[in-house]
Amino acid sequence: MLALITGGLGFPVLFEIGRRLRGRLRRWSLHARITLLTDFLMFIGGGGAGTAGGIKVTTFALPAFVIAAEIRGEPSVHVLGRRLSAEVQRQALTVALLGVGAVATATLVLLLITGFPLDAVLFETVSAFGTVGLSTGITAAIPPAGQLLPAAPRPARVVVIGLGRFGGSLARELAAHGSQVLAIDSRPALVQRYADELTHTAVADSTDETALRRLGVPDYRRAVVAIGSDLEAGILTTSLLADFAVPHIWAKATSRRHGRILERVGAHHVVLPEHDMGERVAHLVTGRMLDYIEFEDDYAMVKTLAPAEAVGVPLGRSRLRTHHGITVVAIKRPGQDFTYATADTVVEKGDIVIVAGRTTQVETFADLT
């Protein structure tokens, strides 16, 4: 009875997975199809006398003999001249139905609470069921069993197009922070270099709409166009992402004029890495700052050594905000970590402070050191 209940649960779940799969199967890459074949083999597992997991080869094969015997109208099932008892048949069908029900249910639950694609989720589920130990790299980002709720956190899914210095570094950093990254580039050597570090990589022409659809790019909510050398390809790729209605599109520009064009074709955010880094380094070279970050509306944050006038007195009494128009937001003593600065914090010689304020004011304050 338990087997029938679990099996009955499995078939509606499989139907739901099949419905999701029907519209995407044609877009699956060769890698995804090979993964599906691997899932099938892991689910079957090893021989009946072995220590491998899965439902076992004999359990998988027995239903076929049962069906064949039923078609031929034979009263009993024979395999290699041996008659299989009804008890053995019942046990095999029970194991098979339990396996299908467990894998299908777990797969559907993970699809609902994570943002991972079906092929990755199914691989993780079958690998765990078969005690194989293989993974696509998403195991660490899957919520623990106690968090199997609709509100469980979902890992960010980002597609990065272009694996040059900027795109490659960005993709690595996203992956290091737990994001699921699909990296696309037309150069096989670059794709191969990042294949072991990122969730998914693919060699494709990003200006080809069909290729992007096959890779499932329209399903992503965040995309970064990191193509800098080929301006036309970057603009066309950004335009395609806008046509896909991707909600958040970042695009790399080589100049402000290039950035304005990217914004007009659909980019929501434009970054100029070389320009921004040049401005930042210029402030570090010409002043006494240890680090510099500029925001919009002429506002910046600076890391610098504490000036002599701030040493030995609480920040509330030093009146740095009144005299210089800046706010000390954090402080770091030698050999210690940064901590929040309060009005009672006493600055000591050699302390590093982070101050915020208007660009000219924080620059002037840094020159006091």
Brief sketch in words of this structure:
46% of the residues lie in helices and 16% in strands. The chain has 14 helices and 13 strands.
Task: Report on this structure.
With about 375 residues, the chain is an alpha/beta fold. It is built from 14 helices and 13 strands. It has helices at about 1-20, 30-45, 55-70, 85-115, 120-130, 165-175, 190-195, 210-215, 230-245, 255-265, 275-285, 315-320, 320-325, 360-365; strands at about 75-80, 80-85, 155-160, 180-185, 200-205, 220-225, 250, 270, 290-295, 300-305, 325-330, 340, 350-360. Helix 1 (about 1-20) packs across helix 4. The protein is elongated. Residues about 1-10 and about 145-155 have low confidence and may be disordered.
